[in-house]
Amino acid sequence: MSNSTDESATTQQLGDWVESLLAQVEKRFDEQNQQVVKRMNEMADRIDALESSILELVHGSEAKPAPAA
Questions:
Q1: Which sequence ranges are marked TM in the entry (predicted)?
Q2: pLDDT-based confidence at 60, cuts 50/70/90?
Q3: Confidence check: pLDDT of 1 > 70
Q4: Residue 52's Cα: distance from chain center in Å?
């Protein structure tokens, strides 16, 4: 019977270890996901700012008359 008890304890330890490992992987995945979303939002803001700057340059150059030669 001791062998059965040892196997049961080992199985329980393995199960606990796997659950712990999966929890760690899930936590790291969530952290990485949050970082990616944050960086994507920052990049979207930078693209919006760049687009605004380009539009200002385009519209600004349209409003100015061409210099006389």
A1: none
A2: confident
A3: no
A4: 25
Question: What's the length of the chain?
Answer: 69
Run of H or E including 4: helix 2-63
CA distance linking residue 9 with residue 15, whole number of Å? 10
> What pLDDT shows up at residue 10?
93
Report the pLDDT value the prediction gives residue 54, as an integer from 0 to 100. 95
> SS3 for 15-64, per residue?
HHHHHHHHHHHHHHHHHHHHHHHHHHHHHHHHHHHHHHHHHHHHHHHHHC
> Between the CA of residue 45 and those of 27, 32, 49, 53, what are the distances in Å?
27, 20, 6, 12
